[in-house]
Automatic annotation (TrEMBL):
Gene Ontology molecular-function annotations: methenyltetrahydrofolate cyclohydrolase activity; methylenetetrahydrofolate dehydrogenase (NADP+) activity
Annotated protein name in UniProt: Bifunctional protein FolD 2
Family statement: Belongs to the tetrahydrofolate dehydrogenase/cyclohydrolase family.
Lineage of the organism: Eukaryota, Viridiplantae, Chlorophyta, Pyramimonadophyceae, Pyramimonadales
Native species: Cymbomonas tetramitiformis
Keyword line: Hydrolase, Multifunctional enzyme, NADP, One-carbon metabolism, Oxidoreductase
Pathway, per record: One-carbon metabolism; tetrahydrofolate interconversion
Highest taxon of source: Eukaryota
Record-annotated membrane-spanning stretches: none
Subunit: Homodimer.
Length: 317
């Protein structure tokens, strides 16, 4: 935000009024990496307690089909995070040529394995495999991604709570809660309506008594809608589309977008940017998450949390 500050400037005995545009102080950065690290420690303690009491550790099965580099990176991060928290990983790496039947069988095997408490099938799957069929085959009680239609249905219903809430939207809410941002009674805008981020994020916000508008690619006048919001969750997958001018002064901005843009100065040749133009928005918002280091690490922490909760339900219902 630019606050107009009128100052009197004396020029050789002549005083003119001049407006100097003064930038607001930058927003507080919501440090998702640090918050996720705290949560991962909390999970580790709970896993230790479970070991002591039941001689059991939570188990997470991660199924990855194909060789997409980004998927492999995410899956590697998830497995490492599991190991650090004392959660046992069950790995199923399948070639891109795997048939739908083979992937279904992998899910069924994990459904039947009593040491597996959570099953995650990394998305996207290769084109020839029907994602919905695979996601619906995951046992409801092991659906740690929360993508099963019955879990999503419960999220949408008043008075019902799903067994598992999808990790990324759950991480967004956790960031708001742990940053002392009140949700109740606030106006919220969610940019994006995907099954895995935008839609469940909107449903969670309205469950917490926010008034929510969902903005998508066919929304006319997105800027003026987003500008009314006290809380913005940006999940469009469009690099830096939410500009400073889209944001109400003092709004809280949660940036889910993880877009790689070419950058010759980086060793990797690219860098990650969010869906918000961070360098502009940080002078308008009161709080903002960075990319990387914001929502991404929370997604993994929430996955571990869902897996722990799944195991706790099995041993101590
Ligand atoms: N940090 C994390 O843990 C995670 C990050 N992500 C990131 O979040 C982003 C969104 O992911 P995901 O939901 O899977 O993406 P999808 O592509 O599935 O969905 C994007 C949504 O945004 C909408 N959209 C796209 N462009 C615009 C636009 N210009 N204006 C308004 N709405 C727009 C689309 O509208 P329509 O429905 O009309 O097509 C769609 O609803 C990506 O950058 C992804 O990498 C995703 C998961 C986890
Ligand atoms: N079944 C399924 N469940 C998912 O939850 C799922 C998925 N499929 N497919 C892909 C998306 C994407 N996703 C991310 C997880 C962590 C980071 C993350 O930790 N990002 C780091 C940076 C990572 C880097 O440097 O590359 C950060 O933002 O700081 C990002 C994105 C989970 N997804």
């Amino acid at each position: 935000m630019f606050a107009g500050v009128a100052v009197a400037v004396g020029v050789g005995g002549f005083v003119a009024n001049k407006v100097i545009k003064k930038k607001s102080p930058p927003a507080d950065i919501i440090d998702g990496k640090a918050i996720a690290a705290t949560i991962r420690l909390e999970i580790k303690e709970a896993v230790n307690a479970m070991q002591a009491k039941y001689k059991k550790a939570p188990g997470l099965a991660v199924v990855i089909v194909g060789e997409r580099k980004d998927s492999q990176t995410y899956v590697r991060m998830k497995r490492k995070a599991c190991a650090e928290a004392g959660i046992v990983s069950f790995d199923k790496d399948m070639p891109a040529s795997s048939t739908q039947e083979e992937v279904l069988q992998a899910v069924k095997d994990f459904n039947a394995n009593p040491n597996v408490h959570g099953i995650l099938v990394q998305l996207p799957l290769p084109k020839h495999i029907d994602e919905q069929t695979i996601l619906e085959a995951i046992s409801l009680s092991k659906d740690v991604d929360g993508f099963h239609p019955l879990n999503i249905g419960a999220l949408a219903m008043k008075g019902r709570d799903p067994l598992f809430v999808p990790c990324t939207p759950k991480g967004c809410i956790e960031l708001l809660d742990r940053s002392n941002v009140e949700i109740k009674g606030k106006i919220a805008a969610v940019v994006g309506r995907s099954n895995i981020v935008g839609m469940p994020a909107a449903m969670l916000l309205q469950k917490r008594d926010a008034t929510v508008t969902i903005v998508h690619s066919r929304t006319p006048g997105a800027e003026s809608i987003v500008k009314k919001a006290d809380i913005i969750i940006a999940a469009a997958g469009s690099a830096e589309m939410v500009k400073g001018s889209w944001v109400k002064s003092g709004a809280v901005v949660i940036d889910v977008g993880t877009n790689s843009v070419d950058d010759a100065t980086k060793k990797t040749g690219y860098r990650l940017v969010g869906d918000c133009a961070f360098e502009e928005v940080k002078f308008v918002a009161s709080k903002i998450t960075p990319v990387p280091g914001g929502v991404g690490p929370m997604t993994i922490a929430m996955l571990l949390k869902n897996c722990l909760e799944g195991a706790q339900r099995m041993y101590a219902p």
